[in-house]
Design goal:
Blueprint (H helix, E strand, L loop, with lengths): L7 H44 L2 H48 L2 H34 L4 H15 L3 H4 L21
Protein name: Charged multivesicular body protein 1b
GO biological process, one term: vacuolar transport
InterPro entries: Snf7_fam
């Protein structure tokens, strides 16, 4: 009996499973907050376009896209945590059965599997944290911004050519009005 892990190890694993499930719920809550922020930015985008402020509209479009990408990142991480939690739940149940049967070899294998799952989650968490940090600081692709502005204009019934800054002639979204003299 001296070779058996202390009974606290079972509580330790249950605590980690609980914390992982809680983290997954927090990530989903954050994703929903990003969804709400994206919707608010879309409203601001539409209002800016109605006022003819294309610079503000572009900023709101970038913010909306950033919020959408952030929500996707949160959901991906939540799904990974759910998968690891499910796998770890199986390990915990296997350990309980092994402890009841006093099979030390089986318990040792299950503990190793548990440690691997936990390390795998740790690596994924670090990668996802880095990805999410980079996603929020990187600029959004101009094509996505232009597409969202066009979509919002279509939904609002706004003719974009009339709303764009006029430099002699209207330019469709995504094209440049820079003359050849201004190019370096």
């Amino acid at each position: 009996r001296a070779d058996l892990p202390p009974p606290r190890s079972e509580l330790f694993m249950d605590k980690h499973l609980f914390n992982l499930k809680l983290a997954a719920k927090d990530l989903e809550r954050n994703a929903k907050q990003c969804d709400r922020s994206e919707a608010a930015e879309r409203v601001k985008l539409r209002n800016a376009m109605l006022k003819g402020s294309m610079d503000a509209a572009q900023i709101h479009a970038e913010n909306a896209i950033r919020q959408r990408n952030q929500a996707l990142s949160y959901r991906r991480m939540g799904a990974r945590i759910d998968a690891v939690t499910g796998s770890m739940s199986g390990v915990v149940k296997g350990m309980e059965a092994a402890m009841r049967s006093m099979n030390l070899e089986q318990m040792s294998k299950l503990m190793e599997k548990f440690e691997r799952e936990f390390e795998h989650l740790d690596v994924q968490s670090r990668v996802m944290d880095d990805t999410m940090a980079n996603a929020s600081t990187l600029s959004t692709p101009q094509a996505e911004v232009d597409s969202l502005i066009q979509q919002s204009a279509d939904e609002a019934g706004i003719e974009l050519r009339q709303q764009l800054p006029d430099s002699g002639k209207a330019a469709p979204v995504g094209t440049s009005t820079v003359s050849s003299e201004q190019v370096f």
